[in-house]
Amino acid sequence: MIGDLRIVAPRLVALAVSVVACLGACATAPKPPELETLERLRADPGAAAAAKRAPDLVKSADHWLAKARQDWQENDIEDAVHEAMMGIIKLKQALALAEQDRGKSRIINAQAEHESAADQHQRLKRDLSALNEQVALLERLQVQAAERRKLEEQLSAEKQLLDVERQKATVVEKITEAELALKTAETVNAPKHAPPLFQEAKDLLARAQQEVQQRTYDAALVTAELAKKKADEAAQAAKPHYQREAESAESRMRAEALARDAAAIPRVVVRRDTRGSLQRLVIPIRSDELFRGRETMVAAGREAVLDSVAALVKKYPTYPVQVIGYTDSRGRSGELLALSLARAQTVYSALIVRGVDARRIVVSGQGSSEAISDNRTTTGRAQNNRVEVVFLYQ
Amino acid sequence: MRRLRTSLLTAALVFPSIAALAGEADDLQRAIDVARQGAKDLANLDELKAAREDLALLDVWLRSAWTLRSEEKYNEVRVVLDRCQAQADMIRETIVASKISLEAAQKEGELKALRDEIARTKQAINAAMAKKASLEGKGRS
Question: Is the pTM of this model over 0.95?
Answer without folding.
Answer: no
